[in-house]
Amino acid sequence: MSETRWLDEDEQRAWLRTAAVLELLPGALDSQLLRDSDLTHFEYFALASLSEAPERTLRITALAALTNATLPRLSRVLTGLEKSGLVKRATCSEDRRAKNVSLTEAGWAKVVQAAPGHVENVRRLVLDRLTPEQVQQLSDIAEALLGELDPEGKVFASTRS
Amino acid sequence: MSETRWLDEDEQRAWLRTAAVLELLPGALDSQLLRDSDLTHFEYFALASLSEAPERTLRITALAALTNATLPRLSRVLTGLEKSGLVKRATCSEDRRAKNVSLTEAGWAKVVQAAPGHVENVRRLVLDRLTPEQVQQLSDIAEALLGELDPEGKVFASTRS
DNA sequence: TTCTTATGGTTGCACCTACAACGATGTGTC
DNA sequence: GACACATCGTTGTAGGTGCAACCATAAGAA
């Protein structure tokens, strides 16, 4: 048992501010999307991820990795999106345990409609409040944190150094 | 209607990484505290905030501002903490609409027991993965974001510049 | 083949959170 | 004092999320 290394003043301030952002930012992202497009941020992110995949189709497990969701969570969200006609599921022919999710035309239209407002919101809340140097710093910091949070690099593999 | 300013490559990478951290970090904080102390991060934060207040007591509204919670959310969390004997509520004598929440002895003991593991986890997940310069950068970045997320500075007033 | 084990995905259950509506008290105006 | 209005906190209700248990299919061993 080693002694606890308590936070010094600078560390404490940095962490308290970070925790505050962690608490506030997700809600700010959700509320704009819910208001303007009737989507949670997670739903938007899943649809956007699909929209950039080949054939706008992915294995459910692959989409879960991209969006960093657990399978149960994604499964239920997909059920909702399917009811809304934005995606469809189909059993995979090669591996009949697996399923492919595809964006429907309506789903594609939804992403196209929602994207500008969402991007504008990300700028307003985050990017436009930082200098270009800070944006780069944030990118490096987040990358460092993902090393611990997502050690296998499964999530957002395309964005890792 | 102005044209959408889409994200350039650096901005997109920074944002995707940040969104990934936003998705993963809260769960990592919760799971250590739930495992070791049977508290969510939010519950821990509320108890810790109380533990640093004069008399270990705060108005419910003041605690909501400190923890950045809505009143309904905090009210229900306090109900749970009260059932566990960690806090108690008492109607405020000066303003009988209001109530004061106080940490009980058991609540204080819980904070004392939980703090070392939590601090260690914050170091493992965040602070120890960054250079001292990056910790300072993160502090400044979070401060800048709170300017938009919490314009009135009600939250974490003590940590703002 | 048959048995065992691993993987893909869904569902039961419990809990947490948001939004809106509500009861109760305080403040200002006439 | 009596009214309108704002504030403090709680609760009804609906929906999201995690964990564990579950079914179905696949892969490997005997």
Query: Radius of gyration of chain A from the CA trace?
Result: 18 Å
- Identify the overall geometry of chain A: globular
**Biggest contact:** A-B, 57 and 57 residues
Examine the secondary-structure arrangement and name the CATH architecture of chain A.
Orthogonal Bundle
Instruction: Please give the share of residues in helix of chain A.
Output: 55-70%
Based on secondary structure, the structural category of chain A is mainly alpha
**Main beta sheet of chain A:** 3 strands, antiparallel
Oligomer: homodimer
The fold-level CATH name of chain A is Arc Repressor Mutant, subunit A
The CATH homologous superfamily of chain A is called: Winged helix-like DNA-binding domain superfamily/Winged helix DNA-binding domain
The number of domains of chain A is 1
**Distance linking N and C termini of chain A:** 36 Å
Given this structure, which CATH class of chain A is correct?
A: Mainly Alpha
